[in-house]
Amino acid sequence: MHIPDGFLSPPVWSSLTGAAAVATGISVTRCKHTLDADKAPLLGMTAAFIFAAQMLNFPIGGGTSGHFMGGVLAAALLGPAAGFLVLLTVLIVQCLMFADGGITALGANVINMGLIGSVLGYSMYYLLNKLTAGKIPLVMAGVASWFSIVLAAGACALELAISGTIPLGIVLPAMVVTHAVIGVGEALITAAALGLILSVRPDLAFGRKSEALS
Amino acid sequence: MKTHTLIILFLGIALLLGGWISNYASQNPDGLEWVAGEQGFLEAGEVEPAYTAAPLPDYAVPGMVPEEDKPDTSDLTWLSTIIAGTGGTLLVFGLGLGLGQLIKKPKVA
After folding, report:
1. What domains sit in chain A, N to C, each tagged with a CATH number?
2. A107-163 pLDDT tens trace
3. In A, residues 103-132, which contact B (CB 8 Å cutoff)?
4. Cα angle at A78 between A191 and A190, to 5 degrees?
5. Cut 0.80: pTM above it
6. Residue A97 pLDDT exceeds 90
7. Rounded Cα–Cα distance for residues A63 and A150 (Å)
8. Cα separations (Å) of A205 from A23, A76, A210, B95?
9. Distance between CA atoms of A178 and B88, rounded to whole angstroms?
10. CB A95 to CB B51 under 8 A?
C-alpha cells in the first residue's frame, strides 16, 4: 500500500512527514537505550528479508494482489523502535531507488507501515501474548500482523479522505476489506518467518534476555 | 545457531526471494492501486513526480524491459528483475547493518 505522489494533499503529506521525522528521532533515542550490541547486526538481515518479501505480490482474487509488510516481524525480533527504523530504511530505499511510493508520500508510508506496522503492531503482539500467557507467540504474531495490515489500510484510507481525494465512506470499506484478505498472507508469512528464526534461536524473541552470543 | 550463521541464512533466503522468486510475483495491482482504480482516483496519482532520479523505477533496469513507446526492446525482464531484486536486497542489508551499528546501545565503559 505504498502511496504515490498526488494522492495526498500538501497539508496531509507535510504533517505526516513531520510526524515520521519525530517518530524517527524517538526511535533512534530509544534504540540507544534498548538495542543490544549483539542484536544490532540482525537489523541488516531483517531489512533484507522484508525488502525481498515485499517484492512478492501474491494474488488475492478479483484481479488484485497484496504483499508482505513486515512491521510485526521486525518488532517481534528487534523491538518496536528498531522495527520502525528497519521499515523506514526499506521504505526510503524503495522510494529513492525504485520509485515505489511517492517522495511526498514517504512520511505517510512510514507512518502507515512503520509506525502502525511495527509500533502499534508490537503493542498488539505484546498484549495478545500477555492475554495468552505467552503460550502461542507465533499465533499471536500472526493475529497482530493481520490487525497491523488492516489498521494501516484504514489509516491510508483516512489520509486519502482528509486529503479530499475520495470520501471516507467509499474508500474505508474497500481498503479494509481488501487488506483483510492481504492480512491473511501477512499473518502466515510473519508466523512462518518468526517461527523459523525462533526455532533455531529462541533467545532472539524481543524482550527475552539474550544468552551469550558468539 | 550462531548469530552470523542465522544472518547469512536469512540473507540467502532474502536474495532467493528478491532476486529470483520475485520473477513469479503477481503483476496485478496491489490493494491500494486496485481500490484507486475501482473508485476512480487513480488519475490523482498521474502527477509530475517530485523526484525522478530513481535508478531502477518499478524494480526494473531501464532499457531491459519493453515499454509501450519502445516495443522493440529485447525482453530482458527476467534479468532486470534479478538485478533489481538482488541489488535492492544487498543495499538494504548493508544499510540495515550500518544502521544497527549507529543506533545500538553504547558499551558501558
Report:
1. 10-199 (1.10.1760.20)
2. 999 999 999 999 999 999 999 999 999 999 999 999 999 999 999 999 999 999 999
3. 103-104
4. 15
5. yes
6. yes
7. 19
8. 23, 6, 9, 22
9. 27
10. yes
Collect all residues with Cβ–Cβ distance below 8 Å to A58 and sequence separation of at least 6.
Answer: A65, A66, A67, A185, B25, B26
Contact A45 B10 (CB under 8 A): yes
Shortest CA distance to A3 belongs to which of A173, A144, A171?
A: A171
> Rounded distance, CA A150 to CA A116, Å?
10
The C-alpha cell that represents B24 in the structure block: 513469479
d(C-alpha A76, C-alpha A185), whole Å: 17
Shortest CA distance to A6 belongs to which of B45, B23, B98?
B45
Contact A65 B56 (CB under 8 A): no
Q: Please report the ipTM that was assigned to this predicted complex.
A: 0.93
pLDDT in tens, B60-108: 999 888 877 766 667 889 999 999 999 999 999 999 999 999 999 988 7
A153 → chain B, closest CA residue? B32
